[in-house]
Amino acid sequence: MADHLLLGIDTGGTYTDAVLFSEESGVVAKAKALTTRHDLAVGISGAVEAVLEQAQAQVSAISLVSLSTTLATNALVEGQGGRAGLVMIGFGPEDLKRDGLAEALGDDPVLFLPGGHNVHGHETPLDMTALDAALPELAQSVTSFAVAGYFAVRNPAHEQRVRDRIREISHLPVTCSHELSSKLGGPRRALTTLLNARLVSMIDRLIGACERYLERRGIHVPMMVVRGDGALISAAEARLRPIETILSGPAASLVGARHLTGLEDAVVSDIGGTTTDVAVLDQGRPRLDAEGAVVGGYRTMVEAVAMRTYGLGGDSEIRINDRGLAARLDLGPRRFLPLSLAAELHGDVIHAVLERQLRAQHGGRHDGRFAVRTGVPGHLASGLQPQEAALYERIGDVPVALDQLLASTLQKATLDRLVGRGLVHISAITPSDAMHVLGRQGQWDREAARLGLALAARARDGSGRPIAQSAESLARLIVDRLTRQSCDVIMAACLAEDGTGVIDPAESLPVDRALRRANGIVQFRVSLDRPLVGLGASAPVYYPAIAGMLDTQSAIPRDADVANAVGAVVGQVRASVTVFVTTPEEGVFIVGGAGASVRLVDEEAAFSLARERAIAAALHAARLSGADEPAVTVAEIVDAPEIEGSRKLVEGRFTATASGRPRIANDQ
User: pTM above 0.85?
Assistant: First the structure.
């Protein structure tokens, strides 16, 4: 065994994975434990202790810990997160209509303040009177704040002043938009900042849980977190900018897939409990999405791999549409707690309810469904409406059947809001339960899965027939549906990469006929031009059939179940900073970004200062993120067309990128 081991941890919606990795010999040991939402440290310690025991390794051999997670991605896909207050400086209510900001904001409070800057960094006076009046009450109803100022990327002074005032009065976490992106586009930057604020408490809990466990075990080494572009950042930086961890797990899986398979060109599809993430490897590298990551239907300003995330996984909700002559199954996008897992934790309760419902002569609309608290800290339930608080009080740590909990349709809507806040889980049948019934999975309670599917099979379609003859036949229908929906999302991602994203495979008759190998005078065929790499614990049971339907080879590496954790420890630290040069008038040059705006009268001096600023800031950010001896490169784009025979500078952009392997601890 190598003297120095790297510990990779991946916290997903269902499982927490751990690997011990040696740069000389690869994966030394791997283990899994259930992700424990009520206390994430329990799942982390379970996985790490198991991997240490398996490897017979001493903690003194560990020199680096790296963490990836899908929690942030899952939260945005499922519409979950803490309640955040948005403060917009220099914007008006009409700006909420842009880039999906109003939809993302929902019922969360927003406050508009006079102020902001123009493109050259010149200010409109900031007035915080409305903020001072609203803060005392506002601080009691939110868990964090987001601050977005007009042209704050040119001059962040107003955002910083508002941030300091909010922290002084509320003592709550505050995210500023200039800390997340240097790109123009105020409403989308505000959207990104709002989503970041909602994720702060979740990622803080995860990192805190991991740090507490490491401290308890005497593992005093650098801790890194995987960013959405596959690069590593320090845990401290991830706490400040949790939005950068969206697509962290998927990005880590891509890095892991490349390392584990050695493939230069592949379609990589990672199926988890909540999502399926699809990306394309070209010449050994994933493409970054220049427009910003899209998660949960929102396009953010977070630079991330060009990964498409779909609400489809082993724990997806199974929706049965029984109104047509033949019933139709659809999966996702919400994640449910599988009945087999709920029964593993609360067997007597789950079994008793399912057996009671099966004995009833007629099925009920809420049969086979339960509610249970997620176990998040109590302060995250702040801001609940009276009817929400009353229902929340009736839901405890032991699952309660929905047919006993809900008395009206209005209460069902209230329950959905509690689920959306991440306070309550719904437990019901999922594809994981179907796999238990078919004997292809066996880690949880198979009998509870069988009872749940038997209940669901009694539903009748429009012709009055049961939708399935048995739990086993319904399980096969569910697995077939997951296979087909997986093909649809993989096809959709690949078509989008080809620039033909206008085709929706789920709605296209030719694609449907091709995937079903339907006969006809006109023959349709589809195939991929490269192998399909299947990742995730359930990849071996799903992806051979998916690859077959897509007429390509499947490549499922031996450690496909922990590819994320492997990717977490083989990545690099990388930091990019952009500094701008603009000219508001002839002979005047403004250098903005990475500090206060500077006014110069010499273009070359302005360009030189911009380069120096970008390099210094990128190196500082890389070192802050834990890079050891980072190297730096600079990309320059100068937009200076000739107008009426003379050169006119519009904008110069100087982007420095510093990268290097993370620092590792010396022998303990």
Answer: no
